Amino acid sequence: MARNRKRAKQRKAKRDASASGEGIVRDDIPASLDHSSADVDEFEAKLVAGAEGTPADPKVDPSAGGVVHPEGLSAAEFAELEDRIDDVEAKIETGDQESISEAEESLEVDIEARQAAAALAPASADQPERKKSIFGRFFDFLRASWSELQRVQWPDRRQVGQATAVVLGFVVIAGAYLGLADAAAQKIVDLII
């Protein structure tokens, strides 16, 4: 149990170090791009800074669907959660499918109840709701669209040439098919008339 607490504290420290408090709430970049180049890091910084996203609630884990992260719980709630997880792990180790499914269903019901409570909870009082004009929202839309367009990996000259050749090949094949179909239909019409 101490190992789990240690890992939870490490995750919280890592999350707190990387959280800026404001900006876009977004998932991590896929693992293959984590350390690919400095350009990726620079781009990510510009993307998050330029889009002016909504501030994330530090107590809510974005991947948990509105459920408070375990590090945001009180000591008693955290201990209860650890005990429940230990019970589920013990049932999994025994291999009894019925008790495993009961424990998983119990956890799922609890998670759904917490998510429903989080969805019904009022917005944070320390964050005043900003009303933007339609022009401000349109400008934000254009800025976010531009950021997404910068994020796209555009094709190079070879890829464009290859795609053009494929399209032209398809046009030639379709033209030949339609030409042959027209010639055959013309012969049939001439025979009938």
From TrEMBL:
Its main location: membrane. It holds the Pfam family SecE. One of its GO terms (molecular function) is protein transmembrane transporter activity. Gene3D superfamilies: Preprotein translocase secy subunit. GO terms for cellular component: plasma membrane. Residues 1-14 have a biased composition (Basic residues). InterPro entries: SecE_bac, SecE_sf, Translocase_SecE/Sec61-g. Residues 1-36, 50-69 are annotated as: Disordered. The chain crosses the membrane at residues 160-180. It is found in: Membrane. Keywords: Cell membrane, Membrane, Protein transport, Translocation, Transmembrane, Transmembrane helix, Transport. GO terms for biological process: intracellular protein transport; protein secretion; protein targeting; protein transport by the Sec complex. NCBIfam families: secE_bact. This is Unannotated protein. It comes from freshwater metagenome.
